[in-house]
Amino acid sequence: MPYPPQGGALQRSYHLLRHACQRHVVHLVALNQRTVLPTDDSVRDAIDHLSKFCASVTVFEMPAAASDARQAITAAVSFFRSLPYEVNWLRSARMHAHLRELAANESFDLLHVDTIGLMPYAEWFNDVPIILNHHNVESHLVQRRAAGEMSVSRRLFFNREASKIEKLERELCGRAVVNLTVSELDAVRLRGIVPSARTMEVDNGVDVHYFRPGVSGRRQEGGLIFAGSLSLYANREAAQYLVDDIWPALLADHPHRRLTIVGRNPPPELIRAGRDPRLSVVGWVEDVRPYLDAAAIYVCPIRNGGGTRLKVLDALAMGKPLVATELAVEGLALQEEEHYLRAETPTEYVQQIRRLENDSALCERLTNAGRELVVRRYAWDVIGEKLDRAYAQYARRAMAAGMASA
């Protein structure tokens, strides 16, 4: 359910959906994850909001996500099944029944599938062109997760999951008339797995009007910030690395530094670290902009994951100088020393942050270049034009017209 548009995948899905609705009649069928919309009232609020631009909104609960125990059981059972957890987690008999009926009674020009785990629902739309969106190349993402696991059993689970997802990608990506990727790098990775797959780059983006310097009215107070949903492994691992390794090095260099970590579902280890008055672990917030406005520097020590990071685009749009790993900006058109400063180790983070603290001209140059880049290339209006071109080229009417002219 792409609402509220907070966090990478939800943010991308929401803005692509909203843009699609400006030119097309769109019927949204979605699954609700209770960790995002935990109450019936929050689900109704989401439906009411999305119904302002969607022709219809139909929502089903995810049986596998009904509780932590149910989710753990689904993951365990998935290890012994041929289909990956990525599919089993998203299975809903009620949603299948609804889509079967919808396909039998309505006519559609295009089916937009938001992630490969939802592709089994496309079976009911035999003659409708499918556009398959990829937030990441999922098999590559899970392979990276496996490589970073210390636990032998978890490494085994994720390696097996990655193999099953890669098999799924080989089977299903060729069925789509086009696969939307968030970067050319992801397109190359996907074609490496499925050489026959058509790909089109539709980047991740940022709402440059919502995220802009000083928009919250809160004055800059200094300090560092990292923001991202801590429910996601890559963000949680980055935050833990920041607190366990980078933060002590920063304090040893300058004991009066301050750090804020913002994100849904912080683990107990981070909450305990937040007992230090210099380190604030905020958890989920409805609006991250006041925290970004208050901070002087955005740090992004991501060492895992895939796709492109919307949190990086948000920070640049807010005019924050960025210190990040190379992986954190992977797939984005950011140039080292022009749009961000690169750091991989705690020592490098200390050096780069010290540079920014001591060089206001460097801060201003990075700030201006970062903001200019996201406005020019990553504003959702710019991204939406790419989505429009994909729809115009591959919708059933467009394809039929092309065949008739040929």
What are the SSEs and their pairings?
Blueprint: H1 8-23, E1 27-32, H2 40-50, E2 56-61, H3 68-78, H4 85-88, H5 93-105, E3 111-113, E4 130-133, H6 138-148, H7 152-172, E5 178-181, H8 184-193, E6 199-201, E7 224-227, H9 233-253, E8 259-262, H10 268-273, E9 279-283, H11 289-294, E10 297-300, H12 310-317, E11 322-324, E12 341-342, H13 346-358, H14 360-378, H15 380-394, H16 396-405
Parallel strand pairs: 1-2, 3-4, 4-5, 5-6, 7-8, 7-10, 8-9, 10-11, 11-12
Helix pairs in contact: 1-15, 6-7, 9-13
Q: What can you see in these coordinates?
A:
The chain has 406 residues and is α/β, with parallel strands linked by helices. It folds into 2 domains: 8-205 and 381-405, Rossmann fold (3-Layer(aba) Sandwich), CATH 3.40.50.2000; 224-378, Glycogen Phosphorylase B (Rossmann fold). Helices cover 48% and strands 12% of the residues. It contains 16 helices and 12 strands. It has helices at 8-23, 40-50, 68-78, 85-88, 93-105, 138-148, 152-172, 184-193, 233-253, 268-273, 289-294, 310-317, 346-358, 360-378, 380-394, 396-405; strands spanning 27-32, 56-61, 111-113, 130-133, 178-181, 199-201, 224-227, 259-262, 279-283, 297-300, 322-324, 341-342. The strands form 3 sheets. It has a 6-stranded parallel sheet with strand order 9-8-7-10-11-12, sandwiched between helices. α6 runs antiparallel to α7 (152-172) and α9 (233-253) packs across α13 (346-358). The longest helix is centred in the middle third of the chain and has 21 residues, at 152-172. It is globular. The mean pLDDT is 93.
